[in-house]
């Protein structure tokens, strides 16, 4: 029996734009109207069905749930905060608490209000101040119902997809090819990204501004709610290498560039760090990996390496996301078991890991790929909005009830 520490929390995660539906005043909705990304539309209608969805999470034994609030709902016009949106998210938090599910709120998960992007978004010098004001408002309005807030989700993913690959808003690309194409259910979405050298420098500027924004938000939150635990959610790619010294050097550089630069900028302004883990890449690797439906290496056990990389910062950690796309649920149970085992191993080797949140509670909008990929413990029929608990969810439930793996 691999037992986890007492008080370890278990659950799953969602993000507002990916599940709520009806969000029309953000950059992703605007991009969809322009034909640059698949439309999200009603998504999972979680905005109105959250209580029933939380009943399912409770049935599955979850003791924690991570979700994000939508900036475009809360601040639809710069400096004007919507009291109805805040009232809704207060009801969401109360629904979780009434089910004894600990809430974790992400203040910003990728999507941005159109008014903010029209000004230049995080390219602008005043963007950290704008973001900090929004973050402080969220915590001042919701902080009595939630102890833990993450400022932002996966800053490097946001920056690299928006300014290096050009596949996400604002569609700026540093690349040698003429076009980026993503096929989704037979339809071709082509990025009309602006190309050249400039997006690389804009990416570096954006990444610096994101770190400054997090730090400013941390300080602003602490002024309105000193006891609130503030984290950042970092996507860690595990870069490894074979025996070749050159490949080992490549791995060191890649790990530094993807993870260390950002964390070093914010490490003095975090109470804890959330880990999102999906990728394991070994330079010089000749193995034929089993693949997920996203064509990613099936490597859940290497969450251990990601956690140990963050453990060096001597902060409490939690798995804020980790999971796989698996259309027939044939591999998810094994993935969860191995991911949890890797987390347990990291704890045994000194990582201060406090919880594990699977991605995702339910199938959802997978950004530029639309609704094709299925990450959920709960299957969604988008025609009827019927929810069906997958068998793998019960394997996870057994782990939760045992607080460990038998």
Features:
406 residues, alpha/beta, TIM Barrel, eight-stranded parallel beta barrel, two-stranded antiparallel sheet
What does the model show?
By secondary structure, the chain is α/β, with parallel strands linked by helices. It has helices spanning 16-19, 27-33, 46-59, 71-74, 83-98, 114-118, 127-142, 155-163, 198-224, 245-266, 303-311, 332-348, 391-402; strands at 2-3, 9-13, 64-68, 102-106, 148-153, 172-173, 180-184, 187-191, 194-195, 229-235, 238-241, 272-277, 280-283, 317-322, 353-359, 378-381, 386-389, 404-405. It contains 13 helices and 18 strands. It has an eight-stranded parallel beta barrel, surrounded by six helices. A hairpin with a 4-residue loop joins strand 16 (378-381) and strand 17 (386-389). Helix 7 runs parallel beside helix 9 (198-224) and helix 8 (155-163) packs antiparallel against helix 9. The radius of gyration is 20 Å and the shape is globular. The N and C termini lie close together (4 Å).
Give the helix/strand layout.
Blueprint: E1 2-3, E2 9-13, H1 16-19, H2 27-33, H3 46-59, E3 64-68, H4 71-74, H5 83-98, E4 102-106, H6 114-118, H7 127-142, E5 148-153, H8 155-163, E6 172-173, E7 180-184, E8 187-191, E9 194-195, H9 198-224, E10 229-235, E11 238-241, H10 245-266, E12 272-277, E13 280-283, H11 303-311, E14 317-322, H12 332-348, E15 353-359, E16 378-381, E17 386-389, H13 391-402, E18 404-405
Parallel strand pairs: 2-3, 2-15, 3-4, 4-5, 5-10, 6-9, 10-12, 11-13, 12-14, 14-15
Antiparallel strand pairs: 1-18, 7-8, 16-17
Helix pairs in contact: 7-9, 8-9, 9-10, 11-12, 12-13
């Amino acid at each position: 029996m691999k037992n986890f520490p007492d008080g370890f929390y278990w659950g799953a995660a969602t993000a507002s734009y990916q599940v709520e539906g009806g969000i029309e005043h953000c950059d992703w909705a605007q991009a969809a109207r322009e034909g640059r990304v698949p439309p999200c539309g009603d998504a999972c209608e979680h905005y109105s069905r959250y209580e029933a969805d939380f009943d399912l999470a409770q049935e599955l034994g979850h003791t924690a749930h991570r979700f994000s609030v939508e900036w475009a709902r809360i601040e639809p016009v710069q400096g004007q905060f919507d009291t109805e949106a805040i009232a809704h998210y207060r009801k969401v938090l109360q629904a979780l608490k009434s089910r004894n599910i600990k809430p974790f709120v992400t203040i910003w998960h990728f999507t941005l209000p159109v008014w903010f992007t029209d000004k230049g978004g995080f390219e602008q010098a005043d963007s950290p101040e704008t973001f900090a004001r929004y973050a402080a408002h969220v915590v001042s309005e919701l902080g009595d119902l939630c102890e833990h807030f993450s400022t932002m989700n996966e800053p490097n993913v946001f920056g690299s997809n928006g300014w290096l690959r050009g596949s996400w808003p604002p569609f700026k690309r540093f690349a040698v090819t003429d076009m980026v194409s993503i096929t989704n259910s037979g339809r071709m979405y082509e990025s009309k990204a602006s190309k050249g050298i400039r997006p690389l420098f804009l990416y570096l500027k954006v990444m610096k501004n994101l770190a400054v924004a997090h730090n400013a938000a941390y300080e602003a939150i602490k002024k309105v709610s000193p006891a609130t635990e503030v984290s950042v959610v970092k996507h860690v790619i595990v870069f490894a290498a074979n025996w070749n010294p050159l490949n080992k050097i490549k791995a060191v550089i890649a790990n530094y560039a993807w993870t260390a630069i950002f964390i070093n900028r914010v490490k003095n302004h975090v109470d804890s760090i959330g880990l999102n883990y999906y990728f394991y890449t070994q330079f010089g690797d000749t193995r034929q990996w089993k693949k997920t439906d996203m064509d990613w290496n099936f490597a859940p056990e290497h969450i251990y390496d990601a956690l140990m990389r963050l453990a060096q910062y001597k902060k409490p950690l939690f798995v804020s996301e980790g999971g796989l796309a698996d259309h027939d649920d044939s591999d998810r149970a094994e993935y969860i078991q191995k991911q949890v085992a890797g987390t347990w191993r990291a704890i045994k080797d000194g990582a201060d890991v406090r919880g594990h949140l699977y991605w995702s509670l339910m199938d959802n909008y997978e950004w530029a790929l639309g609704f094709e990929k299925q990450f959920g413990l709960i299957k969604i029929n988008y025609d009827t909005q019927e929810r069906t608990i997958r068998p793998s969810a019960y394997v996870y439930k057994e782990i939760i009830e045992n607080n460990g793996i038998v």
